[in-house]
Amino acid sequence: MINDATREFVKARADQCCQLFHRTNYMGEDGNPMDIVHRIHSGMGGQSDEHWTNDKKNLLYACRNCHNLLHHPTKAYRIVEMDPDYCEAGVPYPVLDIVDHNGIDISHRDIWLHARLVKEHLGELLTAVRGDRMFEADRAKAMLELYEDYDLLAPDAASPEQMLSSEGFDSEVAMKQIQAAEWIEQHDLEWPRGLVVSKVNKFVSASQRRLWTLCSKETIQAMLYAAVDQSKSDIARALAELGVKIEQPRMYVLMWGSGEKTLARISDLEMLITKVAGRQSPMTDEMSKTGPMVISVQKFAHGFTVKRGKNAFCVYDNRGQEIPFWTDEDMEAEELVGISWL
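Above: the chain's sequence. Below: its structure in token form.
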């Protein structure tokens, strides 16, 4: 049995807060009591109530809900490693390693004490990106971190875009920064000092159009260094010489004779017109094969909203339902898939 002195020590060491899965200074309110938690308890090798399992180094403090996760038969989370006495930057930090019943690691960001430190780091990043003394590379990397861990920074935010908006960032500018930083990170490249986001995104666009099939990582890295002193038109020209033509996708509305509409977000309008020439309405086979009227979205009364995400571009109607649209990839297919927007 754990004696009262040990209980009070463990409680004080945890600052009376749950040390397992909660991401805030949770103290077990709302009918959820607090417990002493064993890393190894009597059912896992302990021999008696007086066994070493009741030693302070084998104990944590946690709420009943989190404690139950360690013993629930369908969850059976297991603490692999911990050091309850360890502190980092003055914060008690047991350095937990937890696995589920399949032996798969539980992410550190899902462990409260680690998340607490991450949240402090995100707060520092937020302050830094609001200043004017960061290289664009550092600012973009910071924005990517804020985007990926938005729920730690703003638990009430429904999406990372909402978090960015609530913090006063221009969502379009922020998404361009995030896209550039993610591409650099994904391909293990170095972002040269002085290279601005808009130039990096030229390479991101080229990457979507065969850049990696034409160039090695070393060649692309060399081009990034050269791009610091080049204009964006110089970069586009150098990429075109490699066989990569960069054009910004634009949104178009196709008006079919039957009354349906189709959206297309594509780079090459001539290819779109060629693809749909003589094509029947995507919903009706009885209409004549005259093809649709193609209108730039700027000249069309929308009736839909566009949402730009880190890896997605989505369109929704006024009821919140997603509207499909053709893309450059569809233009390269042998046959267009019939889609329409009623």
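The chain has three domains: 4-116, 130-241, 250-332.
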